[in-house]
Amino acid sequence: DRGEVVELYAHHPGVTVSWDTIEHVLAGAQERDLPFLTYGDLARGVAPSAGLLLSFDDKWVDAWTSGRDLFQRYGARVTFFVAYYPTYTDAMKAELQQLAADGHDIEAHSITHARAPEYVESQGLAAYLDEDVLPSIDLLRRDGYDVTTFAYPFGSRTDETDGAILDHVSQIRSVAFTWSGVADPCPY
Fold it and tell me: What is the reported pLDDT for 183?
């Protein structure tokens, strides 16, 4: 009603969030006639003023693929933020290609899944970009994905890392938690 996009993210479907919960969210969006958006939609300026943006992080390609029928049933489009890409098997890469062919976005989430501020403090900004961020973006682009967004592992960021990464993608995703009990927004 307020014309806002609600962004929800999780990690390992079926483990860190149940498939029943995911289906409940998808059904609720459909009942409310909320369009499903991706980060690519936002980056390209094609997003309506209200909708649901659902994303999953890390390396759970088999789990993401097992949700294809559910996503298709609700007409959901999802953003998958990929980490550890150089270690993916050919089968995992084929599954990502299938998810992209279904209309989902494949976006960058780093090579090593390190916390940006700590990495920069110990190795320097140039090393963080050259070893963790840019290879994540470049490898996905080389495989045909239109990478528009980088999602920080653990949501850890600084103004310095934001500025450097935004030279290579049009948007970044970070997270902040304002309620107690959340020790770490990323369980892996």
Answer: 55
Choice between 178 and 64, residue whose per-residue pLDDT is larger? 64
Whole-angstrom distance, CA of residue 60 vs CA of residue 77: 17
CA 18 – CA 24 distance, rounded (Å): 10
Model pLDDT, residue 10: 92
Q: Is 49 in a helix, a strand, or coil?
A: coil
Q: What is the pTM of this model?
A: 0.93
Which residue has 């094609």 as its token pair? 46
E strand segments, the chain: 5-10, 36-37, 51-58, 79-82, 105-108, 149-151, 171-173
The answer to whether 71 and 78 are in contact (CB under 8 A) is: yes
SS3 label, residue 173: strand
Report residue 60 as tokens.
């759970």
pLDDT at 167: 97
What's the CA gap between 54 and 161, in Å, rounded? Answer: 24
Tokens read off for 65: 């693929």
What pLDDT shows up at residue 96? 98
